[in-house]
Amino acid sequence: MIQKAQFVISNTNPGNCPKPDRAEVAFIGRSNVGKSSLINRITGKSDLAKTSQKPGKTQLINHFMINDRWYLVDLPGYGFAKVNVKVKQGWESMISTYLTKRENLCGVFVLIDSRLEPQKIDLEFLLWCGTEGVPAALVFTKADKQSKTKTDQNIRKFLKKTQEIFEEIPDYFITSAENGQGKEELTAFIEELVQEYESGEII
After folding, report:
1. Interhelix angle for 120-132 vs 148-162, to 10°?
2. Domain at 5-182, CATH from 3.40.50.20, 3.30.70.100, 3.40.50.300, 1.25.40.20
3. Furthest CA-CA distance within the chain
4. Checking DSSP bridges between strand 61-66 and strand 172-174, what pairing results, if any?
5. How far apart are CA 19 and CA 11, in angstroms?
6. What is the mean pLDDT of the chain?
7. Which of 40, 82, 99, 184 counts the most CB atoms within 10 A of its CB?
8. How far apart are CA 181 and CA 145, in angstroms?
9. Per-domain residue ranges for the chain?
10. Position 145 pLDDT exceeds 70
């Protein structure tokens, strides 16, 4: 259970991240996927991560200390943010460097909008994660925005696509920042990752 969450630092240089002396998990997803809202929901702090109606609000690597024990990282979204090419390339370089070089990173949660058919940009990012050996799990967001039947249909389609990338379907969670669906399952999984890291099982 997350009892304490506080902002630590924001930066554009992975080399300036906090000392990698504890477990760390990161959240990333296409712009406007509801990442900040979900982070606020699972931490129980409505203003921890900055939310916005304008896609691309998160432009930095944001570190939050959880329970004085591990880091939760809010990464810039990919996709529809209206920024120039040079800025976009800078984001991509920053994100790829962080994900492949951060030695204490024990899990990356890729957020997927459950209202949509499988999106090429999400699948391409997962393929990159698989190629680079980045440990990714899926978090389907906004499950409250449509019928359960429609949500399940979209998720099945997406998972079928992931089988073309991975030998096994990644761990996945169905969530809603609005009503808290999936919060307990997701936080329990994160706790498992943290415990594995602390015990030396994740290197």
Report:
1. 40
2. 3.40.50.300
3. 45
4. unpaired
5. 14
6. 89
7. 99
8. 12
9. 5-182
10. yes
